[in-house]
Every structure is written in structure tokens, then in C-alpha cells.
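Tutorial, part two.
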Amino acid sequence: MATKRDPTKLRGEILRNAKERTVIEDRWEVVGDASPPKTRKRGYKYVDELARLQFELIKLQEWVKIEGLKVCVLFEGRDAAGKGGVIKRITESLNPRTCRVVALGTPTERERSQWYFQRYVAQLPAAGEVVLFDRSWYNRAGVEHVMGFCSDAEYEEFLRACPLFEEMLIKSGIHLVKYWFSVSDEEQEARFVERMHNPIKRWKLSPMDVESRGRWVDYSKAKDRMLEHTDTKLAPWNIVNADQKKRARLNCIAHLLRQIPYKDLEPIEMALPPRQPDTDYVRPKKSSQHWVTELY
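Running the prediction step on this input gives:
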């Protein structure tokens, strides 16, 4: 019988990984005088709390698998609002076969001729899956409408049909959770400046992001109208204050954990069988294989 893993040790492993990721993230500072960021005085430590929440996400993942739940989480918000950061922290400790991220690109000509929701339907979760949409069908209510990528008739039809579409999803058994990451004008500008000068993050800045700065008011009006039509009792919008990234991550993950009741399951103990004896196996010479150079 295999020895059961000590939950304390498992938490420690997650904590070490979270600390390592946080240290790497804070190594680059280009905004301001390039001095190390000052730690805010709080009653908790970000890394400790992130590790605790990630441990709870593991429990939720197991419950979703065992109960055959279908969980769909939408992440929307302005460019540079921090959606990708929270998605990354959610998935870091989870099995990608259970929890997957959907980030669709520009629709093809064929997809443009389809029913608008069709390509998103293909990505919805099956039983035992959690699907995180890094932007979703709400592209039509935001960037497509503001940038003129859809007609006024298509935009109005989306606002009419979207609540009905989401009602169908929920009544089919899908747990639908929607997040809007709210970021101030000043904070978005600071993040864009960082992306422009930080080679690690420069890939995140697209021409569309730059264009969005010049259409801030148009996007604000589009967001308000979207919420007016799609913030329903069945599928409400959950607004995340994202001006402070780390607090936004913790708040969002903690909220998500409360949306799906789950139980703290005991891990299944498995017996480790003995290794197959190698009576007639001869290992090839190491010199005949291409080994990675050990630099570390």
C-alpha cells in the first residue's frame, strides 16, 4: 500500500512553487525609478494566501471530476485588466485534462458565416471539466461593436439573444460564472507603459490594445450597455476591482471557490506494484543517445 501524502507537505510544495513564481514576476520593474516594489502592510501574505486558495482549487477539481460537473467561467474586461494573470494562477496547480483554457483567435471566413455562438459552443465543458474562457462570446458586445467588426443589427441581436443562450446553458446543467475585471484609466495606462518597455511582457501589447486607449469612452458605453442587457438573475456579472493585480487574483479565486459547493475528499490510496524484472533487457549505451547538456 502506498503511503498517503501528508497534506501539510503538499501545501508546502504548492507554497514553494507559488513563491518561486512570485519572485520571478517581481524581478522586473520598469515603471518609476526601477526600485523594488514596496510591500503593502496587510494581515496576510499574498504568497501564503495564493497557495491556500490553489490547494482548495485542487479539491474543487476532484469534486468536479467525481460528480461529473460542467463548469464554464468567463473572464472579460478591459485590455491589461489582469484576466490572464488570474487564469494562470487558477490553472497552475490543476490538471490540464480537467481544467482547460479557451482563448479563440480571429474567426475564419467559415466561422463568420456560422451562427455567432457556434464556435463557442464547441468549446463548452463536458462532464467533469472546467473551461476558462479568456474572452468569450462577449467579444461582440465589446471589441466587435466598438471597432466596427460587426453590424449594428448583429450587435442588437447579440444583446437580445445572449441572455437566452446563457439560460439554455444553465438549464442544460452548466455552471456558468462570469467575471468582469474593472481597471481605472490611470492603471491601464501604467500597465501599457510597462508592456511597452518590458521585453518579457511586450508580446501582450497588440495594435488593438493601443487603439482601445483612444476609444476609452466608447468601450465604457459598450460595457454599460452589455451589463444592462446581460446581467441577469440566472447569469449575473461579478465585477472584480483589478487596480491591484494580486488582490484581484485572490478575490476572484476565493469568489470562484464559493460558486460551486464541493467537499474535501480523501485521496484514494493506491498500491504501487513492484517493477517488472528486467531479466532480458539490455539498456542502450548512453553515448548512443542525445542527452541534454547539464548546465545546472
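The first strand starts at residue 70 and ends at 77. In part three we will examine how such features are distributed along the chain.
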